[in-house]
Amino acid sequence: MKVSYYINNPSNKIVENDTTRILKNSSALDFHKTLKGYEPTPLISLPGLAKKYGIGSIYLKDESKRFGLNAFKSLGAVYAISRVLKENANIQTFCTATDGNHGRAVAWGATLFGKKSVVYVPFDTTENRMKAIENEGAIVEKINGNYDDACAHAEKMCVKNGWQLVQDMAWENYEKIPADIVAGYMSLFVEMEDSINKLPKAEVDLVFVQAGVGSFAAAAAFYYLNRYGANRPKMVIVEPNEADAVFASFSEGKITTSKGNATTIMAGLNCGTPSSGGWDLLKSGTDVSLKIDDDYARLAMRELFFPIEGDTSIISGESGVAGFAGFTAIIKDEKLKNIREVLGINNKTKVLFISTEGDTDRNVFNEIVRAK
Ligand SMILES: Cc1ncc(COP(=O)(O)O)c(C=O)c1O
Predict the structure, then answer these.
(1) Catalytic status, residue 73
(2) Residues 76-86, buried b or exposed e (16+ Cβ, 10 A)?
(3) Is the CB of 102 under 6 A from ligand 1?
(4) CB 330 within 8 A of CB 290
(5) Is residue 44 part of a domain?
(6) Do 302 and 325 share a domain, yes or no?
(7) Along the 372 residues of the chain, how does pLDDT read in single tens digits?
(8) How many angstroms separate the alpha carbon of residue 89 from the centre of ligand 1?
(9) Domain CATH for 189
């Protein structure tokens, strides 16, 4: 199984820009707490798994329990929609491109505010994922192209029809809404302050986050840099081998598009280019960027679903499991011994994973966990 790494040299400083200014002034969690169905998602300790991998503790934040939507993405979309409507309550239709979870989140958020939504998906989006978005009230259309093409199409259709674009990825002159989305994702980290502090000695040493366009990883980077500065936990970003937007950009030293073939089971991470809004944060707050084979994700899904005796069984989807999958690659692959050293992994290390989705495509999930 293939795994590659890039060791970054982070500055640990938050660069001042439009995105970080918005993040500094946001308190999305106060907004989320006002929503019906809001509840902090569980933070689960997996002592059996930690013992198996020879580390101190494993904590897993289970975002499959978020607002009944099976993924963390609603945190960003609904907050961004609320901000847009604060400025212009007359907007009637929200539009986005998605490889699944963000589109469902936009549809849910729009419906919550009594608005319409139109969602464009790439050519390889499964029927189940499209249905899940439609069930939240959106019109869903498949386009003949990949995720980046879907983003460009959504932008064009918004200009043509006067719809409001709510994209989870920033580019030049489109930074504010993606920054609000990152601010929304930050709630899950702020939420952990309460739950983590309830667990004895549970401050973590190492955090694994998975990346598509890197907005989620940017939320993690900002949160930890802002709270701990250079004393933050070390951070690893994990991507699929063939959709390595962040890894390729680290390797080139600037935002660049992946040269991978964009085939991966990790559908939510199947993005070609990082978001411009988060890039400075990723550079400042990431220690290692990793890209892994799909097989690591498959094995990790089974490992969490069929736990060691005494541990909780976790339903973590193909993208949701990627952080943990990256960790298993680091431990298992002898060629990554130096990464274990860079990250200071030892028998006391406390590691945090965020399972960002549950079985968002139930058929795919069942096929993978039941496979021999
Ligand atoms: C389940 C899941 N995890 C992680 C991500 C990565 O988020 P980002 O695209 O902000 O990097 C996504 C994105 O869609 C996702 O659906």
Answers:
(1) yes
(2) bbbbbbbbbbe
(3) yes
(4) yes
(5) yes
(6) yes
(7) 999 999 999 999 999 999 999 999 999 999 999 999 999 999 999 999 999 999 999 999 999 999 999 999 999 999 999 999 999 999 999 999 998 899 999 999 999 999 999 999 999 999 999 999 999 999 999 999 998 899 999 999 999 999 999 999 999 999 999 999 999 999 999 999 866 555 544 489 999 999 999 999 999 999 999 999 999 999 999 999 999 999 999 999 999 999 999 999 999 999 999 999 999 999 999 999 999 999 999 999 999 999 999 999 999 999 999 999 999 999 999 999 999 999 999 999 999 999 999 999 999 999 999 986
(8) 28
(9) 3.40.50.1100
Shared domain for 134 and 268, answered yes or no, is no
Ligand 1 site, residue 168, Cβ cutoff 6 A:
yes
Interstrand relation of 93-97 and 164-165 (parallel, antiparallel or unpaired): parallel
Ligand 1 mean position, distance from CA 72 (Å): 8
Q: And the tokens for 36?
A: 């019906």
The alpha carbon torsion through 112, 113, 119, 124 (nearest 10 deg) reads -20
With vertex at residue 352, the alpha carbon angle to CA 219 and CA 65, rounded to the nearest 5 degrees, is 75
* Measured distance CA(317)–CA(362) in Å, rounded: 9
Q: For residue 170, give the nearest of 255, 258, 264, 259 by alpha carbon.
A: 255
CB atoms within 10 A of CB 284: 19
The CA 309 to ligand 1 mean position distance, Å, reads 30
- Residue 252 is inside which H or E element, if any? helix 245-252
Q: Is residue 172 part of a domain?
A: no
Q: What is the DSSP-derived secondary structure letter of residue 40? A: P
- Structural domain including 319 reads 3-72+177-370
Total tally of structural domains belonging to the chain = 2
Q: How far apart are CA 52 and CA 38, in angstroms?
A: 34
CA distance 272 to 95: 20
Choose one of 118, 146, 167: the last residue of a domain. 167
